[in-house]
Amino acid sequence: MKQTTNSILMIRPVTFRMNEQTAVNNYYQKVLDGLLPATVNAKAQQEFDAFVIKLRAVGVDVTVVDDTLNPDTPDSIFPNNWVSFHENGDVALYPMFAENRRQERREDILDILEDKGFVINNIMDYTSAEEDGFFLEGTGSLLLDRANSKAYCALSPRADEELFIEFCEDFDYAPVIFEAFQTVNSERKLIYHTNVMMCLGETFAVICSDCIDDKKERKMVLDNLKENGKEIILITEAQVNNFAGNMLEVRGSNDKRYLVMSAAAHQSLTPKQIEQLEKHAEILSSSLDTIEACGGGSARCMMAEIFLPRN
After folding, report:
1. Which of 60, 236, 265, 279 meets the CB 3.0–4.6 Å disulfide criterion with 244?
2. Do 265 and 20 touch, CB atoms closer than 8 A?
3. How many Å apart are CA 163 and CA 50, to the nearest integer?
4. Each residue of 182-199: pLDDT tens digit?
5. Cis peptide before 309 (omega within 30 of 0)
6. Among 266, 269, 249, which residue's Cα sits nearest to residue 204?
7. Contact present, 11 and 309 (Cβ < 8 Å)
8. Where are the alpha helices (DSSP H) in 123-214?
9. Residues forming beta bridges with residue 178, ordered by sequence position
């Protein structure tokens, strides 16, 4: 199984704004005072377009699908939460915490991918769990070490343990389960998505181990990474707040590896961390300030990796 892909899906926003339904447990979202919604959306579109240009310039195959005005989906720019694509032709659809995010799931997007020559054999649909109040938000909640058949998950209101285990059984992954926290107004609160504090590359892992308050859990997670030969690059909680955990390794032309992140994440890294990362992949960063502030997500959340076979 490959850990990285050259193909990604991205959704271009039409009514991007701060989603009031996700702000209840995404503590990275901020209200940008004094900006009209149309201005916020225009800025997000500019950031999105510049990001896509940078990815395509290095040979990443980006499928861009425009969001629709109806229904109202302010977070559609983060497709990795509702869908994941797998090498055997499976597509997983995930149950989402925020009601207005459930409408992001669009069958026509799967049709577009099939038109591009991607093969979809089977759809694993976990979305009925929403009716019972259980959620698992795609590769936001799940960090897949595809090559080593391990899945990492920080439990939260958006990542249910039983659902995670069910996913692991269906897709043949060994579950690595823990809790990750951040300090909010001097209280420790669960981090809403695993991919905010951790990134898995082919030969490395970026992780804020300080977020894992339980020492045994912390050791267990780090041991699992070491067991698979990953170089561990530690980041701080302050760097997590700048989305330094929210990175994704992709492949460009000639299979060259790139580690994709936001400009804020890149700027938060120390020279030593940059040196460690650049042994594994070239850093590609783009300014996502508006998207990060209003959406509470960053570069990794914007890219749904496509591992599907091709005709």
Report:
1. 265
2. no
3. 36
4. 998 899 999 999 999 999
5. no
6. 249
7. no
8. 138-141, 161-171
9. 154
Question: Could you count the other beta carbons within 10 Å of the beta carbon of residue 266?
Answer: 21
Distances (CA, A) of 200 to 4, 7, 130, 150: 10, 17, 28, 11
Q: Largest Cα–Cα distance of the chain, in whole Å?
A: 53
pTM: 0.94
Q: What is the pLDDT of residue 181?
A: 96
**Residue type at 164 in one-letter notation:** F
pLDDT tens-place string over residues 236-260: 999 999 999 999 999 999 999 999 9
Q: Under 8 Å CB-to-CB from 244, ≥6 apart: which residues?
A: 206, 235, 261, 265, 268, 269
Rg (CA), the chain: 18
pLDDT at 23: 47
Residues 6+ apart with CB under 8 A from 134: 95, 160, 162, 163
Can you name the residues that pair with 154 across neighbouring β-strands? 178
How many Å apart are CA 139 and CA 82, to the nearest integer?
Answer: 8
